[in-house]
Amino acid sequence: MLQGRNVRAGAAPVVEIGIDRMVRNIRTGHFERSLSALMAVGSLVTAGEIYFEHDKASFGNRMMWLPVAMGPIGAAAGIAGFFSRRMAKTALPIASAAIVANGLQGTYLHARGIAQKPGGWRNARYNLEMGPPLLAPLLVTMVGGMGLLAAILRREQ
After folding, report:
1. What is the pLDDT of residues 79-103, one digit of tens each?
2. For residue 71, which of 54, 47, 55 has the smallest C-alpha distance?
3. DSSP letter at 153?
4. Cα dist from 61 to 30, 72, 110, 116, whole Å
5. Residue among 87, 80, 77 nearest 47 (CA)
6. Non-local CB neighbours of 119 within 8 Å, separated by 6+ positions
7. Number of DSSP helices (H) and strands (E) in the chain, helices first
């Protein structure tokens, strides 16, 4: 994309590529809406994956339903944030903070699940492979973090 304001008489036009374009999108507020939409999609994808993984464990703990339920809530907040500035500054950060908190809670619960396996953390190599995935809840935390970032970024006018 050429930028007319950077073209001087007789000088070659400046072409924005890569990181320069991304920085301009952040500066102009275009990135905020994209990140809101990405958060909505990410919420649904992770909620689906969590459902299948927790279903394999037969939803043995009622807390396993919470990240599944947070998926549609995050998706709704992300879509609302994409279309409405007001929702991007109210509903999106609330839903995103709840998703981040749930992801951190899930990391704790997964670590506790590994500790409860035979041998606990003394048998970490085996229990990390066969127990609950320790780092998986942090993926949910990243999705919530995208929503928080979208909420604090400048929005296009």
Report:
1. 999 999 999 999 999 999 999 999 9
2. 47
3. S
4. 41, 20, 11, 14
5. 77
6. 126, 127
7. 7, 0
Measured between alpha carbons, how far is residue 14 from residues 11, 83, 130 in Å? 9, 32, 54
* CB within 8 Å of 11: residues ≥ 6 apart: none
**Predicted pLDDT at 10:** 62
Q: How far is CA 106 from CA 1, 62, 111, in A?
A: 44, 12, 8
pLDDT in tens, 10-35: 666 667 788 888 788 788 777 899 99
Maximal CA-CA distance, the chain: 75
Share of the chain above pLDDT 90, in %: 75
Helices 30-56 and 91-116, axial angle in degrees (round to 10): 30
Which residue, 90, 52, 95, 88, is CA-closest to 73?
95
- CA–CA separation, 81 vs 90, rounded Å? 9
The tokens for 92 are 């999106």
Residue type, position 113, single letter:
G
